[in-house]
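User: Assemble these into one structure.

Assistant: Restating your components, then the assembled model:
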Amino acid sequence: MSQEDYMKKRVTIYQVARESGYSLATVSRVINNKDNVTEETKRKVLETIERLGYKPSAIAQGLAKSFTTNVGIVIPSAMYSYVANMLSGMTDIAKIYGYRTTLFVTSPIQEQASEVVERVISSNVDGVVIFDDQLTEADIAKLASYQVPVAVIGRDLTGENVASIPLKYEETLRETIRMHFERGQEKVVFLKMTDGNGALMNSLVDVAKNECEKIGKGDLFEVLDIQDSYTKTYQQFLDIFKNRNNFGFYISPRDSIACGVLNAARDSNINVPEEVQIISIIGTKYSQIVRPSLTIFDVDMYEVGSIAMRMLTKLLSKSLQTRVYPFYSSIIERNSTRKAK
Amino acid sequence: MSQEDYMKKRVTIYQVARESGYSLATVSRVINNKDNVTEETKRKVLETIERLGYKPSAIAQGLAKSFTTNVGIVIPSAMYSYVANMLSGMTDIAKIYGYRTTLFVTSPIQEQASEVVERVISSNVDGVVIFDDQLTEADIAKLASYQVPVAVIGRDLTGENVASIPLKYEETLRETIRMHFERGQEKVVFLKMTDGNGALMNSLVDVAKNECEKIGKGDLFEVLDIQDSYTKTYQQFLDIFKNRNNFGFYISPRDSIACGVLNAARDSNINVPEEVQIISIIGTKYSQIVRPSLTIFDVDMYEVGSIAMRMLTKLLSKSLQTRVYPFYSSIIERNSTRKAK
DNA sequence: CTGTTAGCGCTTTCAG
DNA sequence: CTGAAAGCGCTAACAG
């Protein structure tokens, strides 16, 4: 860059206009790549833009155009690795479509979580993709009512300005339970996080319970409260396994948690999968790395994130066809569960 | 919310002014909590704001005030778990200070990575924290020259508008190597990622090499190219360990990579740490979960992220005292390395 | 093809 | 304590 590098104030379109000898409008046209400008003019303007080191102010553009090429992303504050994967998917796609991404992080406390809606609304994003179980449907409706198009992950929702990507674990979960009882009779224990892990997991607890009852194994179903931490779960299970009992089929919401169980079993000399079996609903790299490797319900979170963002961009350009795009999980059988005979 | 929920256009300050019977200026004052407003007036204005569901436009505010309460965060596209931790640290602090966060993700390709600078400049963020080895010092200087305050992680830099958080692994690395050769004579192998993992790791390779040479073990130092992937590293090492040779002391840039080596060793029936030792420079939860647990250089990335963001906010409020805040790594000895006698 | 002129929604002197 | 009016930097008719 030129000597303007040490300028004290950012150069505006006015100065470019003055220096280049053209009008505001013309400069604006070349900035926006309108075609009604002579090559010659364009060249000259571009040259002085370069010379002055001018960069358009997105904020002024936003105000004038009434859109910002800015999309919001709402995620929970705890950045689990699957959230990170999803985030990658979203940002990658956003970048491709030329959107900046504003990250809104919700608080773990329900009441405070809803505040994010206010922040999103006044942030002037063109749209938002939401992955956050804490938010209520009313929150989402509110966004939509403020003309903020929304893509929601993990729910089945529709409406003007709303697209959704439901995550379907139910069927896989039911099948898993059925298959378990075909092979064995150990109790099924659903690990449930005490701090509101939100709607999705809670509904899954019910699904599991109902399925057990349906096949007459209601008495073999348990819910166990755990903390949202690998270390704490590990300690807890060290204790649980101390007397080499409490064997069963454990269902964990996340693989990092499942790793706690797995390692506790191992360190208590308990054989996985012969004595204890574990499956995790959400699986990330942890599930591959840990030994024995972990059976998981497979949903590619990167993919989910990128689809969500893509749907949002379509929503923004009014070209979205299907407004609901469910992801069905499949099961990836690894070594923490017993194989079928 | 009221019946305005289904309004088709966002309400502006004008309407609030009209409806409340006050002027723009007064409404603006109450929005901004200026004290020169009667309680009475304030109450009334607030009431109509509530009634109309008015939310100020951050973008218009930004234009008028010439700052946006928006900070940028620049991170590499591959969201490793330590990046995710850092990101959490940054967003948590940003939120506390009332900043929105715009996420800029750099491309893995060097030339394209620098483009992020342009995007940041025209995005009108008030400042930016950068964690990206791809960016050059010139890139950072450019940001600073455009009056964008910068906090850089992982480098030792200063300047007007610049703060930095160098990550000091050198000394720990030297010490590790020294201690290794006091206990054994196996070769030291530095795992180096082929795709530019950037300046930091490259400089660490040199540090390791120099240290080995310094203590007369230059011939026992090797660099091994690896790919940036757990699975690929695992495969590669399965091959390397096939004949139960190539024992040594491996230094990995990241724990997910180290897990590849660890699992390959284990699955090749090689004893860790007796036959092969592994240490990782960056450590996350993987290092705790994997068995044997992994010795790492400890730097709390969440902490790094939050300090960086805090420094940026201080920079923005012109109240930053110390502009360089180095983080020194310490070693967390676990079971992938042999203990001292 | 280019220039003039209103805004976009809000803040901020400056008067009163 | 409150209001009028001039911008913030840029875009978008509307003329020419």
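The first helix of chain A runs from residue 13 to 20.
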